[in-house]
Design brief:
- With about 290 residues, this protein is α+β, with helices and mostly antiparallel strands.
- The protein contains ten helices and eight strands.
- It has an eight-stranded mixed beta sheet.
- A hairpin with a 5-residue loop joins strand 3 and strand 4 (about 155-160).
- The radius of gyration is 21 Å and the shape is globular.
Length: about 290
């Protein structure tokens, strides 16, 4: 018995040290939270320069100049709209500015699989950046989406209607961060060990509870996605709505993707007017 107790005692410090390192890392991550800007955004200045660039400004103008489609019978977009093709996309629109980019975190594949420790540094990671209009333009709001570029930096991923993403991303407080479960469009606030829902989808994701420990939340998402990760039968049968190439969270095929959605599909504007023209030719004038 004494040998077993001593053996257990020898294993415990190693486990404790691992947990302590993870907890300290999580504390550092959360200490930089709040409306996350330069503190936890790599190449923040590059992202800031991008949202202030003429190319992004013109992209937003084209988006705002595109009328919203009429609602269909099911309440969704009802049909195609014509994207303005003009060398002066901002003509006739009021002047506007874009807010500083904010970080959007999402759950990691390892956390969803149940193989990562239930601590913030393992549970979530930086996914993309969002920047909303400083004020509504002609009674419309919009959000610019920036995605990481391979090798470093950021590029324009699209523009979407509304500013809820930026609203959620900016609701982090000192000692917490905000993350999304994109498969259900749930937004959550995470402290060191507690997950709180920020919208109805997240409340449903927590089974109606007002909060949940990160460890319990891991079990919930493991039940939702562990059998849908790459290599699973669900994935190999072409039904995957788990995690796509590179570990990026993917949407089910019948949902609008996170980076191309809203009430009007996001314009593919990373390449400026040329990319917009290619998009129009491919999709026969639809946004």
């Amino acid at each position: 018995m004494r040998d077993r107790v001593e053996s257990a005692g020898r294993k415990s410090p190693r486990f404790s040290r691992l947990s302590l390192v993870a907890a300290l890392g999580a504390s550092v991550l959360l200490s930089a939270a709040g409306p996350a800007r330069a503190a936890d955004i790599p190449d923040f200045q590059a992202a800031l320069d991008l949202v202030r660039s003429a190319g992004v400004h013109d992209a937003v103008c084209r988006f705002l100049a595109t009328p919203l489609p009429a609602a269909g019978p099911d309440g969704g977009p009802g049909g195609a709209v014509t994207v303005p093709d003009t060398p002066h996309p901002c003509a006739g629109l009021p002047a506007f500015t874009l807010n500083d980019p904010l970080a959007v975190h999402e759950i990691t594949p390892e956390f969803a699989a149940g193989t990562a420790l239930p601590v913030p540094t393992s549970a979530v990671r930086l996914s993309n950046l969002v920047s909303s209009l400083g004020a509504a333009v002609n009674d419309r709001t919009a959000t610019v989406l920036l995605a990481p570029t391979e090798g470093g930096g950021w590029h324009l991923a699209g523009v979407r209607d509304g500013d809820s993403d930026a609203g959620y991303a900016g609701s982090a407080t000192p000692g917490s961060l905000v993350f999304t479960e994109p498969q259900i469009r749930g937004w959550y606030r995470l402290t060191l060990s507690t997950v709180e829902p920020l919208n109805d989808q997240a409340r449903e994701g927590l089974r109606g509870r007002s909060s949940m420990s990160l460890a319990d939340y891991q079990q919930v998402v493991k039940g939702r996605y562990a059998d849908k990760l790459p290599g699973s039968e669900y994935d190999t049968r072409g039904m995957s709505s788990g995690y796509g190439p590179g570990g990026t969270a993917a949407e089910p095929s019948d949902r609008t993707p996170l980076l191309a959605g809203g009430s009007i599909a996001a314009l593919a504007l990373a390449g400026g007017a040329a990319a917009l023209g290619r998009s129009r030719r491919r999709r026969r004038g639809t946004v």
